[in-house]
Amino acid sequence: MKLSAVFFTSLAVVNASVTVKLDSVHDEYRTLRNNNKKKNKNKKENEISGLPISSCSFSDGHTIETTGCNYDAIRAATGCSASDLRDKLNVSDNQTARAKISELCEEALSYIDEQDAYYGYDGFPFERVMAKGYIWDQNFFDGGTEYNSIEDDTSITDQGIRIQAIADNVARSRLIGFPDQKISNFNNCDKNAVMCCYVSKKRSDATDGTPTDNTDVCYHDMSQSQRSARVKNGYAYFGGDAEGEAYCEAFAWDDDVDGPYKGNTLFHVAMEKAFLQNSYTRSVPGAPMCGCIEQMPVVSSAKCTEAHPAQKFTVSADSEGSLYLKLQETDITFTDCGNFSDHYSQRFGTSISDYVVGTCPDIPPFFEELGYVQRDTNWIPIYGKGRFTYPRMGAAEARNLINDGLRIVKRRCTDCVDTHVNIFYKRVTPIPEDFDIMDLFLENWFEKEGNVFNVDFKLYTTLQDAKDDVDPWVYCNYNYDGVGFPRDCGPEKHVGGQWNSVNKGGRVDLLFSIEA
Asked: Both ends of the chain: CA-CA distance in Å?
């Protein structure tokens, strides 16, 4: 109880009164907009029709109510035409007016009107939420504190008092700072999106429970979250349903609308909902509990939350007559926006499918990079090197396989230039009995009887071209001791440095195989 008393003392400065309601603002806006539309059909193009007020109300002493702070929102809220706003701001063009409004909004939303003597904070940075310091917050979002793992419900009860007080008195009426400057999980959220994922739930009998299963965790690239994973590189792959039940929730923001309140949304999603209301714990192994979506595991789906801030600003003039904005009141509502992937694409006109994929792939994309390749049963490997290491097949066995129907040979080389990643060697004539085809491919690519370009064999870039005899390669050379296939052969001209060799270096990661 002592903790609670101290905490509420520290929050006594919070003004919890809220006079602006989002729904009423929207209802009034729609009514007045419809009335104005009827009156302003013939107005000039540079004037905004359908505004909630009929004159330009952007002068000293005016009050503005908006759902975002940017040029378009200010024009809609004040009734100012583009020329009116240029005059009010004392600028000559719309581009400068937009920049000026952005500057005024940023100053209004970043203005610090409080210093908390007890905790030593200016305003309400995120580390003030739990008041344990940013290192604790970092560990919490990494999934590394006792609150992320302990199953005893008393931890929720103890901390729930503070979290509930923040939810009631701060999260919906004040700007909570986003912790991107001090917590690495939230650095460089280029997609303007954050996701939290959980694989466990606290229960009253102090045992692991299971969260609502709303997603499949596909895989995680730990190089994207090195601090959380405690390793520099590595992957975690969750084939099938290996991760068990898992729950993910995400939110995104528009920098000019709900972006300033992304700290509030983070608190709502991670602490109010997940920790306090749902008792969710434990992060996906190797991944943060919450972070920029680029740092999080790739998942099939995620629940979506969206913040809707209704703001009241006053317009004031300084001693030189220049106008500035001051934020007076904020009323934030949080809504369920359904499937996060759908919401993101509808809101921003672009896909988030690199991170929320719909269906987990059977084979994650990094497998081949690591040399783990599912064997294609349509091809019989005869030699592999580097990441594709495979024992060398005998010359007679390889010759017999190729001659059985003049099968195509493929060389796959992942460290070659694009034109030489896949080369298809198609026999036109059978390989002679005394011909060592393996030595030809691997060590001594020579022109000799039985291996004459466009007489005994042809080369192609794709399997279909080889089958259809379309676009065969036009250049080939040979005859360098120790240098194997294809020396400097190319689709159109000499292409050097793409050959392989057993003893002289050459390409590193390659696999020869015969069509099955």
From this structure: 75
Beta bridge partners of 510: 385, 413
Separation CA 406–CA 75 (nearest Å):
74
3-state secondary structure of 281: strand
Rounded to two decimals, the pTM is 0.65
* 439 neighbors 422 (Cβ within 8 angstroms): no
* Cβ contacts of 339 within 8 Å, gap of 6 or more: 301, 302, 303, 304
Q: What's the pLDDT at 150?
A: 63
Q: What are phi and psi of 295, to 5 degrees?
A: -95, -5
Q: What is the mean pLDDT of residues 425-451?
A: 95
Q: Is the per-residue pLDDT at 215 higher than 90?
A: yes
Give the pairing of strands 379-385 and 280-281. unpaired
pLDDT attached to residue 2: 29
**Cα–Cα distance, 362 to 221 (Å, whole number):** 16
CA angle 323, 324, 326 (to 5 degrees): 145
Find tokens 């917050």 and name the residue: 137
Asked if the structure places residue 151 within a domain, the reply is: no
Do the Cβ atoms of 173 and 329 come closer than 8 Å? yes
Asked, for residue 434, whether it belongs to a domain, the answer is yes
Confirm whether 452 is domain-assigned.
Answer: yes
Residue numbers of the domain that contains 510: 375-515
Q: Answer whether 345's CB lies under 8 Å from 351's CB.
A: yes
Q: Is the dihedral of CA 77, 81, 83, 84 positive or negative?
A: negative
Residue 277 per-residue DSSP state: I
Better-predicted residue by pLDDT, 369 or 479: 479
pLDDT at 114 over 70: no
Q: CA torsion 10→12→14→19, rounded to 10°? A: 160
* C-alpha–C-alpha distance, residues 196 and 215, integer Å: 12
Question: Residue 7: pLDDT above 80?
Answer: no
Based on the structure, what is the number of domains in the chain?
1
Token pair belonging to 512: 């020869």
